[in-house]
Amino acid sequence: MNYLAHLYIGHEDENLMIGNFIADFVKGSKYKEYPFEISRGILMHRQIDFTTDRNKEYIEVKKLFAESYGRYSGIIADMAYDYVLAKHWEDFCELSLYDFQKKTNSILLQNFSIIPLKGKVMLPFFVRNKWLTLYKDLSTLKNVFVGLSKYRGVKGDPEKAIEILESSENKVFSSFLNTLFAVVTKLKANYHEVNNIKNNLIKMIR
């Protein structure tokens, strides 16, 4: 899962959102250097990734992009999940996606001092370009895929990936729902904050 899904899962608590956002920039035991409430968010992010990567539904979505992106198919699958979440956002969150972006911006900017350097460099682009609102647009997503190739050396076929995502959208959304349910079920033992998400998912999956 990518930024939107991680922030959504932690959205009931600002510290969880901060921790989820900075987690990729915090390696190993460095999470212990942060306040307990934020370290919980970092560990939540790691548990989300661990559970997602081993979920059979997610693995099947990765396979959809294996031909066009090979070993980078997981990156595309994560973005595909954020795409279907953004497209169906009103089913998941009371805030509009635009307002959720504003809320996230405010939280992160107010806590700028504790964000790792790489996150500080990225944050202005995240805020200015309204990253969370961009996921639902396929043409923008295609540009992101192109950017991955250009700036991060991720080899793949953006045109083919978008074509697959468009033709398999229902399958990807169903996979996302079931993977998200598996994730929050695992998280529930340590994070009561996901209870509302789980209850909403139960209604949706039925």
Question: Would you kindly provide a written description of the structure presented here, covering whatever features stand out?
Answer:
- It is a single chain.
- The protein is mostly helical and 206 residues long.
- Helices cover 71% and strands 0% of the residues.
- The radius of gyration is 16 Å and the shape is globular.
- The two termini are 23 Å apart.
- The model has no long low-confidence stretch (mean pLDDT 95).
How would you concisely characterize the structure shown here?
71% of the residues lie in helices and 0% in strands. It contains 13 helices and no strands. Helix 3 crosses helix 12 (169-187), helix 4 (56-64) crosses helix 6 and helix 6 crosses helix 12 (169-187).
What is the count of β-strands?
0
Output the structural class: mainly alpha
Task: Describe the main β-sheet briefly.
Answer: none
Write down the oligomeric state.
single chain
Proportion in helices: over 70%
Task: Please specify the SSE layout and strand pairing.
Blueprint: H1 3-9, H2 14-22, H3 36-53, H4 56-64, H5 66-69, H6 73-87, H7 97-110, H8 117-128, H9 131-134, H10 138-152, H11 158-167, H12 169-187, H13 195-205
Helix pairs in contact: 1-2, 2-3, 3-12, 4-6, 4-12, 6-12, 10-11, 12-13
For the structure shown, list the relevant keywords:
206 residues, 71% helix, globular, mainly alpha, single chain, 13 helices
